[in-house]
Amino acid sequence: MKTKLTDQSLTPHRAMEYHKFSAKPCSSYLFFTLLLFFAFLASFADAAVHFHEFVIEAKPVKRLCRTHNTITVNGQFPGPTLEVRDGDTLVIKAINRGRYNVTLHWHGVRQLRNPWADGPEFVTQCPIRPGQTYTYQFTIQNQEGTLWWHAHSRWLRATVYGALIIHPKLGSPYPFPMPKREIPILLGEWWDRNPMDVLRLALFTGAAPNVSDALTINGQPGDLYRCSSKETAIFPVEAGETILLRIINSAMNQEMFYGVANHKLTVVAVDAAYTKPFATNVIMIAPGQTTDVLLTADQTPAHYYMAAHAYNSANAPFDNTTTTAILEYKSAPCSAKKGQSLKPIFPQLPGFNDTATATAFTSQLRSPSRAKVPLEIDDSLFFTVGLGLINCTNPNSPRCQGPNGTRFAASINNVSFVLPRRNSLMQAYYQGQPGIFTTDFPPFPPVQFDYSGNVPRGLWQPVKATKLFKLKYRSKVQIVFQDTSIVTVENHPMHLHGYQFYVVGSGFGNFDPKNDPAKFNLIDPPERNTVGTPPGGWVAIRFEADNPGIWLLHCHIDSHLPWGLATALLVENGVGKLQTVQPPPLDLPRC
Fold first, then answer.
1. What residues does the Plastocyanin-like domain cover (predicted)?
2. What per-residue confidence (pLDDT) applies to 336?
């Protein structure tokens, strides 16, 4: 029997189990001034504190006919779904019973003045070592929608991840018709071996890591893989009802196309930011991104596949398999005539390299109303992003198995980012410890060249360093990410920790600073925390640096992060307590 997921009605008005008693003003005999006072208190009354323990340890997980000792959270793969409301506080005690150092990142949460809860290893904290614990405590502030959490240390996030769903405050409706039910859809990748060994081999040889053996939906590969069909995820629906799919790309390295056979998807949010609704047959979603879609069960009652496969924009090997789950109408006939099983209907997905469809999808994203886009820019940055190659003195070395006896690398503005090891960046900054990083990250490439054209071989080797870019508090920032053709063009999903930003423009070829800004959408651009660079093209973002601390900026393709496709923004404190990084917690891990 296939695994059926139980129906869940996860509406904003769903009763949630709170761990903290909340008192609400109820007296009708108070004076008008006291009523105003209690009304003020009532704005905080529905906020809750949610306590969780996340035990990180190896458990047997069977996929593709084989059982692996897999790093999980609370024995679950994928990990637990967290559900909160805007304004709630999460207190999560991470207990490391595994054999690897680990950290946890709450992807997309602003973490205002609280980088200590952000989680990237050696950036805002030292790792939680085996046998140790660390408690992440943070409050959701003015955010609602679909986010997620994942390990942020080496390749542990291949199996350590889960959904983080933020419902609106009580009494606040969605800006779209209320769905009958909500279903988290986590897209992932599965290796038929230990993902940490896959990374270790790649870092030793300098070659690209082996591609995954399966794609997954909610941890299951689906009907098209060996030993998998009995566990394919099934989502029952009633004919005529509308459901909300909260789609998360938690894959390590693979952008994906996703669709449901014969059903339109109405996009209503991305990265926990609402959008102008629009209908589509397929979405393109990059690692790190989330997309909320409404689906109405308006087709003939039957079984329909939802499916996802790769969008591959690079000239590189990729996992060309297809993962499936089943949308099952409850009123569908159990079997076809003559006792044959009823085969689900399969969706039409774009070709693996269909950049036109990917671009057509992202170009439709708009904020629902006029956005507060910074118009006067204080810091205008131009960041080239792409791969590179490190030359070897002995090209025949077993450590130089990249192209033509080299080692793969990656960089932003020719700086290949190196994580520190003696201390985390944020701890070193807070403690005033010198020698861990510098703040001379270049605001533009050291050499101008034809970024998306034929790049001279002498420009392929980046410089390794731990350089940060410093921003003043409340600085208005524009960053143009320019993909390069070094090694290969590619859609790089760039994720900025601690911030949401507006995607004001994009295009193919080299960015034209004289003419392209005139085409920017400064009215209703989409708001995101992760945005892809069009392959061989550019994308422009704007935001206000209103969150002090050190915030990682990196490509969310995890094979590119250890190669150096990252930097960090150091946002200085403003004036007063409310514009200053809060003190670190007492149990912050030490290096």
1. 57-169, 182-331, 440-573
2. 62
List pLDDT tens digits, range 382-411.
999 999 999 999 999 999 999 999 999 999
Amino acid at 189: E
Closest CA to 211 of 195, 228, 229: 195
| Structure-token pair, residue 125 | 């904290």
Q: Show the tokens assigned to 113.
A: 């003045």
Taking the model in full, what pTM does it have?
Answer: 0.93
Compute the radius of gyration of the chain from its Cα atoms. 24
Return d(Cα 82, Cα 106) in angstroms, integer: 11
Which residue from 379, 377, 410 is spatially nearest to 533, judged by alpha carbons?
A: 410
Sheet holding 133-139, edge to edge: 66-73, 49-63, 89-96, 133-139
Cα separation, 214 vs 198, in Å, equals 14
Each residue of 414-423: b (16+ CB within 10 Å) or e?
Answer: bbbbebbeeb
Burial of 15 (0-12, 13-18, 19+ CB in 10 A): exposed
C-alpha 351/C-alpha 346 separation (Å) is 15
Task: Give the single-character DSSP code of 317.
Answer: -
Q: Kindly state the DSSP code that residue 220 receives in the 8-state scheme.
A: B
DSSP reduced 3-state for 359: helix
User: Which residue type occupies 384?
Assistant: T
- Please state, in angstroms and as integers, the Cα–Cα distance from residue 469 to each residue in 75, 327, 438, 442, following that order: 40, 47, 9, 7
Q: CB–CB of 133/165 below 8 Å?
A: no
The phi and psi torsions of 96 (rounded to 5 degrees) equal -95, 100
Residue 45 has a pLDDT of 55
C-alpha triplet 536, 541, 543: angle, nearest 5°? 165
Q: Quote the mean pLDDT of the chain.
A: 93
**Residue 384: strand pairing partners:** 482
Which among 241, 250, 243, 182 is positioned nearest to 216, based on CA atoms? 250
Q: In the predicted model, is pLDDT for residue 210 greater than 90?
A: yes
What digits encode the pLDDT tens for the residues 14-33? 333 333 323 333 333 333 33
Question: Omega before 78 cis (within 30°)?
Answer: yes
* Residues 521-567: tens digit of each pLDDT: 999 999 999 999 999 999 999 999 999 999 999 999 999 999 999 99
The stretch 405-420 carries a mean pLDDT of: 98
- C-alpha dihedral sign at 351, 356, 359, 361: negative
| pLDDT beyond 60 at 41 | no
Neighbour count for residue 337 (Cβ, 10 Å): 7
Beta pairing partners, 327: 235, 304
Cβ distance 495 to 529 under 8 Å?
A: yes
Tokens 């404190």 locate to 573
Residues 133 and 96 sit within 8 Å (Cβ to Cβ):
yes
Task: Provide the 3-class DSSP secondary structure of residue 231.
Answer: helix
The secondary structure of the chain in percent helix, strand, coil, rounded to multiples of 5, reads 10, 40, 50
Which residue, 141, 128, 164, is CA-closest to 56? 128
